[in-house]
Predict the structure.
Amino acid sequence: MATRRAQATTAEFNVLKALWQVKQGTVAEVRAACARLQGAEPAYTTVMTLLGRLETKDLVKVDKTRTPFLYKPRHKEASVLRRRLRDFLDDVFQGDASELVLQLVKDEVLSADDLARIEAKIAASEDRS
């Protein structure tokens, strides 16, 4: 069984999303991006702590040769989202993506437009096969 990387908590993931938005930034810049994304500005020390935790989890790299420190995401957003989705599928649906989609349909989470887009993706995928 493959070992998983440490998962970001919800608060850490929100900071990571802000960092992806700014591409690289100081604590103050990431904090401002958090405010834009979440509608509320977190405390400076909170963002600094969360960035430190993300560094420990190998999700962020820090340039400590300059002041203020410069933070960068270690991984592309798409690859982290893909990994989180796979982990979620494994944990909740035993890796069965169809069960996830069926649950979304059952709970009426998907709109008619969503379903049409899914059908179009399936059709395009079948055309490539």
Notes: The helical segments are 10-22, 27-38, 44-56, 77-93, 97-106, 112-128. Residues 77-93 form the longest helix (17 residues).
